[in-house]
Amino acid sequence: MSISLASSSSSEISYPCSKNLQHKNEKLPVSKCFVGLGSSNKQNRQRLLSRDAGKVGVSRPLMPEHVKESYMGEKYHKDEGIQKTKYVRTLLIDNYDSYTYNIYQELSVINGVPPVVVHNDELTWEFLQHYLYEEKAFDNIVISPGPGSPMCPADIGICLQILLKCKDIPILGVCLGHQALGYVHGARVIHAPEPVHGRLSEIEHTGCNLFLEIPSGRNSGFKVVRYHSLVIDAHSLPKELIPIAWSSSANTTSFLENQKVTPNSFGENAKLIMGIRHSTRPHYGVQFHPESIATCHGRQIFQNFRRITMDYWSRLFPVSKSNIHDNAWMQMQLPRASRVFRGKQLKSKPLVNGVQAGKTLSMCKPVNESIGARFLKLKWKKLDRLASQVGGAKTIFCKLFGDGKAENTFWLDSSSVEQVYLFAKQMFSYHDNSTRIEGHAFHLWGVKVELCGSKSRLEYLTKGEIVSASFQWVVLCKIFIFFNRYCAHASDINAKSGGYLSIEDANGFVENKFLENGFLDFLDKELRSFRYEKKDYEELPFDFCGGYVGFIGYGLKAECGMASNCHESRTPDACFFFVDNMVVIDHRNDDVYILSIHEIAYPESTLGQALNSNSKSWLDETEEKLLRLKTAATEKLKEKNSESDVPTPQELGFHAEKSKDQYMKDVETCLNFIKDGESYELCLTTQMRKKTGDIDSLGLYLSLREKNPAPYAAWLNFSKENLSICCSSPERFLQLDGRGTLEAKPIKGTVARGLNSVEDEQLKSQLQHSEKDQAENLMIVDLLRNDLGRVCEPGSVHVPRLMEVESYATVHTLVSTIRGEKCANLTPIDCVRAAFPGGSMTGAPKLRSIEILDSLENCARGVYSGSIGFFSYNQTFDLNIVIRTVVIHEGEASVGAGGAIVSLSKPEDEYDEMILKTQAPVKTVMEFQRKSSAHE
Questions:
Q1: Are 138 and 91 in contact (CB under 8 A)?
Q2: Is the Cβ–Cβ distance between 45 and 563 less than 8 Å?
Q3: How many CB atoms lie within 10 A of CB 152?
């Protein structure tokens, strides 16, 4: 796909599609794409990526000093004319942004009821007008942020019509919505002096109702997060629009370094409009993001808008009308988010990155008859104080399961001082909790680890939370699942998410089928088919009791609301084992658990009888094997050689999919997209490849885990697909524990370890105080708050840890933790659909960013950028982000890497960071091959 960003001398952003909207009195055209959820909008989006966008000049903003005093008269009195209603009903227009559901969460708490969410191209004006004016279903409207410009109908959709025609309904526009309010009344929208994304500014305001009880000006404590490249030109404001807020100076600050400012080249007088209101209509706009985690007084702004709304209606209707039309509002309400008006269903389209409109979402819903209920029974034994006597997890795995080529095994691995593991037969996952964080608590594969000084200890979060480690599956019930999607090219807008599924059982019988609705729909039905008793596992100190272990590749984004895949992956899009027997080692107490699940739904069947008769023998047999193992001396880890000059992947024999020059040009293209408001952050990636032939992939993984231990590392070996995955990931994508708590732990911001302790501390400090890295991290934190906000109870999404430095064998990273309580009526797969792919690997806004990245990257990401982990039969899961990984497929090793491009990025630095992230896996491959050759 070609991308061009032509320049012009115009100081105003110019789009061919915006000519009809240049003046406020011109009639707005109604695009047919507003009628429903057809493909026209996606086609428009693809055209946006190749359009010629005018380069914007800068004009001197109007100074606000004379305005402040003249507008202080509109002082809001809390108790005067306020209607004592229980809730306020909001229509939230989503401009395909990745922060809309942060607003949703705020409004749900403040209004007392969730808003109705619709995309900006989902409804015709006639349809919406009926609910606004005939049914009176809403008290106010909020227009979300979003990518692009208000001058392009494909970006802004029905919002301009709403702003023009809803003269008597309170409206609040945020960022793009704010710009739309200015543009629709004749103001010009131009490029800001510089793009500002994920950075903070102090705000001064007039003290009007929207900013009631909020301080103003420098050192007042009112700092806001900005995500924008465009602004309203203050010189072009018509008399109908009154500025109410400005940036207090041209400087921005980072989140953690509040006193540090980053001046721009436009001087102290370059204050920008941060808020406007209409002189006669109850319409307001703010350029900044009040919903951001780092914005001060953000909730107060939404509370003030609620009060503005209540006061407005109470003045028009002194007698309460709040309950008259509740039925119409309820027609538009659905559990979680509304994309269907009951009685008038729209065309089907993914709702929450893949959760479809009108779908009843419940873990307790009736099982489809075609699936059939499967009743599982868990049996387990606990062997006290046995772990240290058998030589540790690595020895157990290699002796019991690592013979030959360790075919069809897996290992979920976290390496640390104190180790916790879990094992099983034919599939293997292992947790060896290790990291180099000091001074605070962190999480591994289902484990909370707290470091007190130099002593590490494990602490169970709750009784059902996985403590460890590794799963292997018995040969008797061997089931392998491989899924390959059709390649849906960008031009094929109507392409479905279906693909071919291959299932192999214990006897080698292979069943192939086509899944019209895709793999995640299949997995969802599988998990929903399980029936079990909680008492079977409630005394276990971990969540995973059996189920599916494997990976979902980046290409499955097409099943999560993304338009398409531009590139076809060489590897399957998903591979999973079914795990029914496992061994767990709790190294906190040195205990070993042996678990086996079996199906009891059809005891008369041959398979059912085999399961029932063999489960006990497997427990006994495995116990005997463990007791026979002699303590083995673990191999002493070799000291890491510190090298000042680290060879590049190319020097080590890897071929890069992109040259250095091309990668840097792509970074420049990303910066142009960011400048034009198409994205706030773009995670650009590429791949390194090398022919390896018949390599000992397990030996390679053992070498990688020594050199680069990580909390979410993994080994997967799918022998039939000739596919091995050696992963040393430090990042969790998403976890759902036994209490229904969802947790994400994104990483954004990476720097190499120092050669000595002094240099190491300096680099760590530089990372922690880097404005660029903080901006990257903050943007992804807000994005993941949005993703969790789609599937979590209102008010439950929170950030217990923000931008903490975690240190690993080769790098320091900035890590944040986001949590929320899952809505009871949603399934684990619904949660994955809402957040996949992980925001740290895409950028924000996610949908538009992925479209841009697909057009720039010249190959499929495959396993890289996907997720590895488990889905337990008891409806819990834990998934990582696949980074720092060697994928060995059909005799070729590939290593993916990239980095987040933001407005502060420099192409040379971004290339260097990408290379840094490849060094550990690439060097491991080369050193292992040299050692292997030496022993031949």
A1: yes
A2: yes
A3: 21
Q: Which domains are delineated in the chain?
A: 90-258+268-314 (3.40.50.880)
Q: DSSP strand E in 859-930: where?
A: 867-872, 877-880, 885-889, 892-901
Distance CA 158, CA 144 (A): 12
Taken in order 729, 416, 738, 822, the sign of the CA dihedral is negative
* Paired strand residues for 901: 682
**What DSSP line would sit under 263-314, residue for residue?**
--TT-TT---EEEEEESSSSEEEESSBTTSTT-TTHHHHHHHHHHHHHHHHH
Look at strands 655-656 and 681-691 and give their pairing.
antiparallel
- How many whole angstroms separate alpha carbon 234 and alpha carbon 59? 9
Distance of CA 266 to the CA centre of its chain: 35
Q: Is 839 exposed, middle or buried (0-12, 13-18, 19+ CB in 10 A)?
A: buried
DSSP helix/strand/coil, 514: strand
CA 243/CA 278 separation, integer angstroms: 9
Handedness of CA 188, 189, 191, 194 (dihedral sign): positive
| Structural contact between residues 727 and 884, judged by C-beta atoms closer than 8 angstroms | yes
Separation of alpha carbons 315 and 313, rounded Å = 5
> With left for phi above 0 and alpha for psi between -120 and 50, is residue 673 left, alpha or beta?
alpha
Q: Which of 121, 87, 115, 122 is nearest to 100 (CA)?
A: 115
Distance of alpha carbon 429 from alpha carbon 869, whole angstroms: 9
| CB of 58 closer than 8 Å to CB of 295 | no
- Residue 638 DSSP class: P
How many whole angstroms separate alpha carbon 478 and alpha carbon 649?
38
Between CA 237 and CA 246, with CA 242 as vertex, the angle to 5 degrees is 90
- Quickly state the pLDDT bin for 590 (edges 50, 70, 90): confident
For the chain, how far is it from start to end, CA to CA, in angstroms?
47
Pairing of strands 867-872, 843-844: unpaired
| Whether the Cβ atoms of residue 331 and residue 137 lie closer than 8 Å to each other | yes
How much is the mean pLDDT over the chain? Answer: 75
pLDDT range class, residue 270, cuts 50, 70, 90? low
Q: How far apart are CA 694 and CA 430, in angstroms?
A: 25
Spatial separation of the C-alpha atoms in residues 260 and 258, rounded to whole Å:
6
């909370």: which residue's tokens?
Answer: 448
Window from 356-360, 656-660, 778-782 with minimum mean pLDDT: 356-360
Indicate the DSSP class of residue 447: -
Q: Locate tokens 């767990």: which residue? A: 584
Is 80 exceeded by the pLDDT of residue 65? no
Q: How many whole angstroms separate alpha carbon 538 and alpha carbon 465? A: 10
Question: Percent helix, strand, coil in the chain (nearest 5)?
Answer: 30, 25, 45
Count of CB atoms within 10 A of residue 416's CB?
Answer: 22
Beta bridge partners of 484: 500
Residues 709 and 728: beta-carbon distance below 8 Å: yes
Q: Which residues contact 836 (CB under 8 A, 6 or more apart)?
A: 353, 552, 556, 557, 560, 733, 734, 867
In angstroms, the CA 6 to CA 95 distance is: 25
Active site residues: 175, 289, 291
> Which one-letter amino acid corresponds to residue 24?
K
Q: Which range has the worst mean pLDDT, 249-263, 718-732, 800-814? A: 249-263
Residue 208 CA to residue 44 CA, distance in Å, equals: 39
Q: Phi/psi of residue 693, each to 5°?
A: 70, -150
Q: Which residue's structure tokens are 């590939």? A: 894
Residue 478: the pLDDT is 38
Cα angle: 7, vertex 9, 10; to 5 degrees:
105
Quick one: which of 578, 224, 528, 215 has its CA closest to 371? 528
Parallel, antiparallel, or unpaired for β 374-383 and 530-531? parallel
Residue type, 286: V
Q: How far is CA 646 from the centre of its chain?
A: 32
